[in-house]
Amino acid sequence: MTDLKRTPLYALNEELGGKMVPFAGWEMPVQFAPGVMKEHLHTRAACGLFDVSHMGQVVLRGAGAAEALEALVPVDLIGLKPGRQRYALFTNDAGGILDDLMVANYGDRLLIVVNAANAEADIAHMRRAGLEIEPLEDRALIALQGPAAEAVLEAVTGAVPGKFMDVAEVESSHGDLWISRSGYTGEDGFEVSVPARHAEEFARKLLAHEACEPIGLGARDSLRLEAGLPLHGHDIDETTTPVEAALTFALSQARRAGGVRAGGYPGASVIEEQLAGGPARLRTGLLPEGRAPMREGVPLFASEDAAEPVGTITSGAYSPSLERPIAMGYVPTEAADPGTGLYAELRGKRLPLVTAPMPFQPSTYKR
Amino acid sequence: MKYTEDHEWLRVEDDLIVVGITEHASTQLGDVVFVELPEIETVVAKDDEVVVIESVKAASDITAPLDGEIVEVNEALTDNPALVNEDPLGEAWFFKIKPTDMAEYDSYMDEDAYQDMIS
């Protein structure tokens, strides 16, 4: 594991008993001593601390920053007010998704947070488009998620952003903190960008709170799956459009047909066509009827004896909160109505499952 | 008790061999959420995959440690897969097999050899 990168919290993760594994070029904790199940449930019940410093943090400054970034995403960023964050997608000419990202307006700059596995490609993509971006190598990113996250963070920082997708810059004894009220679990919570040199002491302060425990990437995955949130490279990729991926909420009205700045991003014509006519397939929730977990790659069939699959599972796991297997995947649009019966082929057997709305676990964002 | 390189334990019970997985294996697997047991009276050959275990992390198999016939399975695991983590050496046995040749049992590792292997 010599050429794997290490986050500013690497030593702390090891000290806390994190089981370190390679992930997207980084050495990251997949779990701590309690294990995925307990870590998952602790996050839903109290507060989980996640080292997400492997994610790419990029700053874009200057007049015209929002306009320039708008040319790459189907999202209204000119209308993104200071103190607010929005979910966005880098699209390609076929309307596929190169990556999903968060864009936050900190007044004098935009902070862009991208997936670790795509950070290098995203940076190249933005530079090719002429964006004068500053990738940040000297800041860690720490997520606090769960019903106690607000109390845990407020005890350390004194102030927190008030509502879901609000962002705030907070001066603290741990340096200049850039805090967004968001996350990847369906819970109320925060993602805090902290100077690398302060990251460990800041994390220790947060973990000193009795409600706060370190959580690994394993539980991060099962939490986001329960929340119905897609993972790039699995549930969404360059071959799936935002319409197929059931992410139309992210397509701003201003950038759609008839909007004030309609189109003007890669793949706009494909995406507009799908918005108007409906996509042939859709990402949907799936509930296996039995107890066997169904994971990524499992083919889906319309009937017990159909010869050709109609879709595939893109993520699947046992849900610790629902105590049953859950999954998501792509099915023909006509089969995406909740309750439609399908079959998955697992170890040579066809097993029943039904399509289901997402999220599986209701989200608790503070609106 | 004897042990296989695949982290199974074997225990003799009259003319049967009871099979489970070791504490080490259950820890490595993580929280077990699903167990699929073989049918009773299945005739199996050594190394046949007979049990599917799914943990929160991944699916894995338990293979038959020797030739024989499956004569009993632990249905309790179907309803409560977490037993595999709670009591891997006791209540969480998977199946009992009637071996074709009981002598095969002796070819497996003893406790000391297994501890050496995992340390």
Can you tag this structure with a few keywords?
heterodimer, A: 367 residues, alpha+beta, Gyrase A, domain 2, Elongation Factor Tu (Ef-tu), domain 3, 6-stranded mixed sheet, 8 helices, 19 strands, globular, B: 119 residues, OB fold (Dihydrolipoamide Acetyltransferase, E2P), 6-stranded antiparallel sheet, 3-stranded antiparallel sheet, 4 helices, 19% helix
The CATH architecture assignment of one domain in chain A turns out to be: 2-Layer Sandwich
Q: According to CATH, what is the topology of chain B?
A: OB fold (Dihydrolipoamide Acetyltransferase, E2P)
- Return the CATH topology of one domain in chain A: Gyrase A, domain 2
Q: CA-to-CA gap between the ends of chain A?
A: 42 Å
Taken in chain order, the helices and strands of chain B follow as: EEEHEEEEEHHEH
CATH architecture of chain B: Beta Barrel
Kindly state the number of beta strands of chain B: 9
Distance between the termini of chain B: 18 Å
User: Main sheet of chain B, how many strands, which sense, barrel?
Assistant: 6 strands, antiparallel
Mean pLDDT of chain A, rounded to whole units? 97
Round the Cα radius of gyration of chain B to an integer and report it: 13 Å
What does this structure look like?
The complex is a heterodimer of chains A (367) and B (119). In chain A, 20% of the residues lie in helices and 32% in strands. With 367 residues, chain A is α+β, with helices and mostly antiparallel strands. Among the domains of chain A are: 10-54 and 137-226, Gyrase A, domain 2 (2-Layer Sandwich), CATH 3.30.1360.120; 280-367, Elongation Factor Tu (Ef-tu), domain 3 (Beta Barrel), CATH 2.40.30. In chain A, helix 2 (36-45) packs across helix 7 (217-226) and helix 5 (149-157) crosses helix 6. By secondary structure, chain B is an alpha+beta fold. A 6-stranded antiparallel beta sheet of chain B has the order 1-2-3-9-8-5. In chain B, strand 1 (2-3) and strand 2 (8-13) form a beta hairpin. The longest helix of chain B has 8 residues, at 111-118. Chain B is globular. The model of chain B has no long low-confidence stretch (mean pLDDT 96). Chains A and B meet through helix 2 of A and strand 4 of B.
